[in-house]
Prior knowledge:
Layout: H1 2-17, E1 30-31, H2 46-54, E2 59-66, E3 72-73, H3 80-86, H4 96-106, H5 114-123, E4 128-133, H6 137-147, E5 155-159, H7 165-170, E6 177-179, H8 187-194, E7 201-205, H9 206-210, H10 213-220, E8 224-227, H11 232-239, E9 245-248, H12 253-262, H13 271-291, E10 295-298, E11 309-312, E12 314-319, E13 324-328, E14 334-336, E15 344-355, E16 359-367, E17 378-383, E18 386-406, E19 412-423
Parallel strand pairs: 1-2, 1-9, 2-4, 4-5, 5-6, 6-7, 7-8, 8-9
Antiparallel strand pairs: 2-3, 10-19, 11-14, 12-13, 13-19, 14-18, 15-18, 15-19, 16-17, 16-18
Helix pairs in contact: 1-13
Amino acid sequence: MAGLAVVLLVLLFLQFLNTDSRATPRLPRVAHAGGEFDGLTYTNSFEALNANLAQGFTHFEIDFSWTSDGQLVCLHDWQESFERSFGGPAVGPVSLAEFEALVTARSPVRKCTLSSLADWLTAHPETVLITDVKEDYEAALRHIQTNHPRLLDRIIPQIYQPGEFDLTRSLGFERVIWTLYQYAGSNADVMRELSDMPVWAVTMDVVRAGQRLGRRLEELGVPSYTHTINDYADFLYFRNLGIDEVYTDTLSPEWEARELASSAVVIEDSAFYQEELGRQQRLEREVEQFRALPTSLFDLSDNNWRTIELLNQITDVQPLSQGFSLRSTGTDPHLALPELAEPARSIVILLDITAEDAGYLELFYSTRRDTGFSESRKLQQPLRWGRNTVLIAAEDDSPITQIRIDPGVAPGLYEFNAIDIRAE
Length: 424
């Protein structure tokens, strides 16, 4: 029976991933920092651009930094990237002339400047530049607009905050990518911002992609990327979580056509897939062990949810067939369960909770010795968008008497299909 349970779990997990093939991606694949060249990444170099253009890339993401005399050069930063590129200690921004001298004398590749890259784009009209400017974004776009106006339709700026969208469009850049790596808002915040911000695409790290933000973006018709993906099985994994395409160092269109013609790459080869499958299997075993605990201290049967005290930022509580729902009006909702009739030093709490946004759930507990709730007795578990099964174990040398649940860090609807507390 245990083997059958594992098989069923795998089948359910595959269904969760929606592994049926999807339509051809709407987006071109992006060569990250120009793409890999001779085993090197982050080179932002002509060698990388030319090699990856020959491998079928047309869209190139390039990092830009400001020189000390106000010019843009193709460099990720003046610290680690500078040391990696030139083999010497970082000295902070240098002048354009000094940068070009360093490229000639100490770099194994020809790193570009904005001016020399503009010449390359002109010579290769099939190519598109995607900018990544770490500092003084507005000044960089104005600099590009002033000095290279004929290339505006060949350049897709990446914005970092929603407030930069209108500025970018006003400067003549029709296509805009919103990259989320500097954005502190929740996924629900992303969705709200995009409702009236027609970006060309959104790109995100693998954490947000793993939270299935790509699937939510599909609801708005917004294409999505994740970065940086260099394993094709990982590409399949994220594509089946709603991501359209990737920024990559190595997965060129030519490589893909050649590799897939000679061998089969499957989603099960993905490290992300295996990690998620392992998590699901561990959770299944832990739930079985939880069900075997003999002492029930609280559950939602017999309308017990009505005994829960709503403490903060909670409204619109409604009964469900097996529990209740509530709406959080802020970022710190919390509710307290009734005191446990049989306090215990070691308990396990199972929560079946559906959330409108990814985030995390916090659980606080009080004891006979330490009444009230405090940060010293806090436990935390991540939440995904959608339905979650959460198991949290709490242990103390004084019997645990009461539980407080903070269901999430974002406003919105939360559904509790189960709250079950057990002990030995």
